[in-house]
Specification:
0% of the residues lie in helices and 62% in strands. The chain is built from no helices and nine strands. The strands form two sheets. The chain has a five-stranded mixed sheet with strand order 3-9-8-5-6, with no helix packed on it. It has a four-stranded antiparallel sheet with strand order 1-2-4-7, with no helix packed on it. The two termini are 34 Å apart.
């Protein structure tokens, strides 16, 4: 299930950000997937996506850094071992063209949900 989609653009690149919902596993941690799809103006464009995740009402506790050159699809994830509920992802896309000596930054924001693991079993027959 995909929880949050976001997008942002600079004159050098645009990014589509997807963050999936997750459920706490047996280990007590969840790993929501983060996918960035970047469309760059040229192969010379370098880009970085810095993301911070926080449970609603708290300060950021997790981060993820994704980077590349030109067009790319890059996956990462947040490792979250606390806080079921609604999470907010905020961050920046930085795009650079060193040949033209250009750099642009733009903000990103998305959200996702962490669900509690199932802790109850119902028996229907003995």
């Amino acid at each position: 299930m995909q929880a949050g989609d976001a997008g942002a653009s600079t004159p050098l690149a645009s990014v589509a950000l997807e963050v999936s919902d997750a459920t706490f596993e047996v280990t007590g941690c969840a790993t929501p997937k983060v996918i960035t799809v970047v469309s760059a103006a040229s192969p010379d464009v370098s880009w970085q996506v810095q993301l911070y995740a926080r449970l609603v009402g708290t300060a950021p506790t997790r981060s993820e850094f994704l980077f590349g050159d030109g067009n790319a699809r890059v996956e990462g994830n947040f490792l979250i071992c606390e806080g079921a509920g609604d999470w907010i992802v905020s961050g920046t896309l930085t795009s650079q063209d060193y040949v033209q000596d250009l750099e642009f930054k733009v903000a990103l924001e998305s959200s996702f949900k962490i669900s509690k693991a199932v802790t109850k079993t119902n028996l229907t027959r003995v």
